[in-house]
Recover the amino acids of this structure.
């Protein structure tokens, strides 16, 4: 079983979308996809209603998800850890215990736009358009990830 973890700050906007989108593109019998946040603000909460809505628009149900915090144990569990932005990337890497852990961490947009180190913008304080934009960026990146898995 290959295991993929999507990570953002709150685990309510971007990484739940990334989890749902990647799950829709792969065989869930052989690949496990989960998500987590580097902050604990929203632990136990449903995804943001704007993420739920944009996922629903494209036929993806993410209402089974509940926010949780990333921990260093996730390095033992997961093969690929995708950070949504540079700040999450740094936070995750700061918890790495060795170079093996560190090698598992990638910026998700480097899959669709290699070597550019671009970030998925945090849509939390913006409007609905921000969530559509995030959805499209993640859809593109997850298509590449799914093709490689
Ligand atoms: P996410 O978005 O990291 O994509 O889940 C955010 C959610 C909540 C907050 C910030 C970003 N917050 O500050 O509560």
């Amino acid at each position: 079983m290959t295991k993929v973890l999507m990570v953002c700050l709150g685990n309510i906007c971007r990484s739940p979308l990334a989890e749902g989108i990647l799950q829709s593109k792969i065989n869930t019998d052989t690949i496990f996809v989960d998500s987590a946040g580097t902050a604990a603000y929203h632990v136990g909460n449903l995804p943001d209603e704007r993420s739920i809505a944009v996922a629903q628009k494209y036929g993806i149900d993410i209402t089974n998800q509940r926010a949780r915090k990333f921990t260093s144990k996730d390095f033992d569990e997961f093969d690929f850890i995708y950070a949504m932005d540079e700040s999450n990337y740094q936070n995750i890497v700061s918890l790495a215990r060795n170079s093996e852990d560190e090698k598992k961490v990638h910026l998700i947009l480097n899959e669709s736009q290699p070597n550019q180190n671009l970030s998925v913008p945090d849509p939390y304080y913006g409007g609905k358009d921000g969530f559509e934009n995030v959805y499209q960026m993640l859809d593109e990146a997850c298509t590449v990830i799914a093709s490689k898995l």
